[in-house]
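Annual report, structural modelling task.

Input specification for the zinc ion complex:
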Amino acid sequence: MSVSYHAAAVRWPGATRCIQPVAPITLVAVVAVVACVSASRPASGVEPADLARRAGLRVVGSAHLTLITDRPERAGDGVGDLPRLFDEAVSTWTRHYRLDAERVGAWRATGCLIVDRDRFRAAGLLPTDGSVPDFENGFCLAERFWMMDQSNPAYRRHLLFHEGVHAFTVTLLRATAPAWYTEGIAEYLATHRLQTDPPASPRFVAMPLPERPADVEQLGRIERIAGLRRERTMPSLAQIFDLPTRDHRDLGAYASSWAAVAFLSGHPAFREAFHATELQPLDGRLTTRLRATADWDGLRADRDFDAFVADLDYGYDFARMAIDWSPGGPLVAEQHAAAAADRGWQNTGWSLAKGDRCSFTATGRVTVGPASARPLESEGDGITLRWYRGRPVGRLLIAQWVEPADGGRPSFQILAQGASGTCAAAADGPLYVKVNESPGDLADNAGAFTVFLTPR
Ligand SMILES: [Zn+2]
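The model returned the following structure:
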């Protein structure tokens, strides 16, 4: 899958600009503008749709979008569906921000889907006065936006919705929030799949955390997060909060900002505080306001975020992956703990000091599935027909949360695996157990192993 990435949004009173996804590993210049720009009309004062028609450009529209393109009309390319899908997306954004539907009813954006920029410049639809930089893939200025045409229909739609979220939040909510939020929420609210059920028209289905790679062709964010982890360049949540706008120039920053918003929106410990914060002014104090919410624990948030991105995968199940960080008691005699197949890392309640050893034996059976029609039964060694992250699905894993001494973000370090064996503690802290399976496939698992732990 090729990756794409987004660059920066720079805000100033009454308008926003966003430089959008570009070809892989190409940096996009960010232009800081501090002047107030009135962007509702072209300089000529003539309605964009009229300018477009005079220039022989195609205009398609809906309640909330006028879309102008020089893209040759091709049967089945889906461009004619875009305005209707945009309206469906606007309904989702309206609910997200709990806006009054009547107020949103009159709201309208104008988007240019561009093959040849010169045609738009000549038509007076792409400013040449410097108010719009030479963007790579997309740019938003208040309720107007421009985007280069994309060969992939799913990615074209994603760009349209990403710019649409900027236009929506800047004009209706006067958003001037920090870059991690504005870009993260644009990614989050743009992510969707297309529900196709012929002969009915395709429908926009919000899918902020995608369930399958096929739903989000060419986005590559989950893969980029995994790459950042491998490269040991994944930022912490606190570092993402502080990302300056100028750093939003590559997929890493965009993927990180999306991950931060997805995490805060989905994690049971943070989602209420986050959403309550989103319903307040989306201004430069958004992060400060979030951190000031009752019960906000920055260290806990950082740790839960690290755990989220370490295990992030399609369909990530927040409720089943939530982690109990309590310290546990010292393991000084044989103890046992359950390892449920339908949960992520589970605290055994028993801790070891770094270097201490213990032996373990897992009894019982669990069911994992159904990847096929029939669920599979597993003992502690796992099922060698199916693998996840290099280990058989259904295998018992034993781990500790470890802060790496040589850099990189902390994560669960697997100490041992299988139905029985020994392990040596890599850190001071509790032992965690898990039945190996994708964090998006836990819901249809059942049963638990009983894991006996004996100090040695
Ligand atoms: Zn953007």
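Confidence is low (pLDDT under 50) at residues 1-17, 19-39.
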